[in-house]
Specification:
The structure is a homodimer. Chain A has 9 helices and 3 strands; from the N terminus they run H-H-H-H-H-H-H-H-E-E-E-H. By secondary structure, chain A is mainly alpha-helical. The first copy, chain A, folds into 2 domains: about 140 residues, Ribonuclease III domain (Ribonuclease iii, N-terminal Endonuclease Domain, Chain A), CATH 1.10.1520.10; about 80 residues, Double Stranded RNA Binding Domain (2-Layer Sandwich). Chain A has a 3-stranded antiparallel sheet, covered by helices on one side. In chain A, strand 1 and strand 2 form a beta hairpin. The longest helix of chain A has about 35 residues. Chain A is globular and about 60 Å long. The first copy, chain A, starts with a helix and ends with a helix. Chains A and B meet through helix 3 and helix 4 of A and helix 3 and helix 4 of B. Chains A, B: Its EC number is 3.1.26.3. Chains A, B: One of its GO terms (cellular component) is cytoplasm.
């Protein structure tokens, strides 16, 4: 039984003028209606890219576009949107088939992330960029207390540590597998080990960057499980 | 000697309030100023993604998000923006180093595409989405007379044929290299041959799709030369 949409609207601080639009945004394609949330997701994805891009553009006036792209990529991705979706309990409102429900659909990162994008797309369509920007930034800022390159990098290692402590009672171990290239252009390959099993490997221009990338991949793998 | 910015503003149908902003948007990093157009390009890239995404969302109310993404990808890419940039003679206004100038910089697809994104980013920053949307859509519609999945697919083969006729006095030849997979899920690999030399190969769910993809790659290769 789905929670009533009113409650979601209160959480968002936004009341839809057209109720059909929020229902479409919440409808997973498994629900077999003449509509689903995929078109709104397509739109919302671009809306979020612009909102987050402009936010970072203004917040970091000294950062070059490479750095801005990196920070955005760390916020604008499935596991990032999954987190935002969970923070507004979006899973409780999604319409999906019984099969998908029994398959844990309400708790899947991909479903949650897509529904979040669709909700943003729906608000944009109805009320434009300025309105949806306020709502999205407020949700993002509540979930990322400190948006900076360092803190977002720290986030993945911290997130992974929290996950592994809760699930395995252990912290992850990072091992440098290899370093390649001349001194001024070295690349490091790092593996994340949890309970003596390798979960992910990544390359990076520093050990720190490679660790963060590997941590990110491990977080995504653990969340899928 | 750069053409005067007034003329570009006339072509765009937009007068910048802040002249510094259009100068920044036109400044390639080789010009060695305290500013260049890369941050504005970062912003403009997201602005164009949203503008084109919303345009297609409204234009094709029956198309699913896979189809919309495909059409957008065929418009929103370096060679697409290069074409738009050329249609407003953007190359004549770009500030760049002598070395880059002598290296044909004004005529490079990457420089032109980036400057185009930066100009869009600059107008967005100054006047918001609605204003820049009108300008961008007008340029896009002038350059793509018929925006549809078929016509955009046709575009690459037509473009390649025009290019090869002008350059080699020949039309390209498409050869099916292989087909793989069961009947209901076949994939085709197609090569483009020009003057008995293979230029590109691509896979696709139909011969037509693979040909178009290969034609696109060949067009990009020929334009780089």
């Amino acid at each position: 039984m789905n929670k009533h949409i009113d409650i979601l609207e209160k959480t968002l601080g936004y009341k839809f003028k057209n109720e059909k639009l929020i229902i479409e945004a919440l409808t997973h394609k498994s629900y077999k209606q003449p509509y689903d949330n995929e078109r709104l997701e397509f739109l919302g994805d671009a809306v979020l890219d612009l909102i987050v891009g402009e936010y970072l553009f203004n917040k970091f006036p000294q950062s070059d576009e490479g750095k801005l792209s990196k920070i955005r990529a760390s916020l604008v991705n499935e596991s990032g949107f999954d987190m935002l979706a969970r923070s507004i309990n979006l899973g409780e409102y999604i319409y999906l088939s019984n099969a998908e429900e029994n398959n844990g659909g309400r708790d899947k990162a991909s479903l949650l992330s897509n529904a979040f994008e669709a909700i943003i797309g729906a608000i944009y369509l109805e009320s434009g960029l300025k309105v949806v920007e306020k709502i999205a930034i407020s949700i993002i800022e509540k979930n990322h207390k400190d948006i900076s390159l360092d803190s977002l990098f720290k986030d993945f290692k911290t997130t992974l540590q929290e996950l592994t402590q809760a699930r395995f009672g252990q912290i992850p171990d990072y091992q440098v597998i290899a370093s390649r290239g001349p001194d001024h252009k070295k690349e490091f390959e790092v593996a994340v080990i949890i309970e003596e099993k390798e979960y992910a490997r990544a390359m990076g221009k520093s050990k720190k960057i490679a660790q963060q990338e590997a941590a990110k991949m491990a977080v995504e793998m653990l969340k899928e499980k």
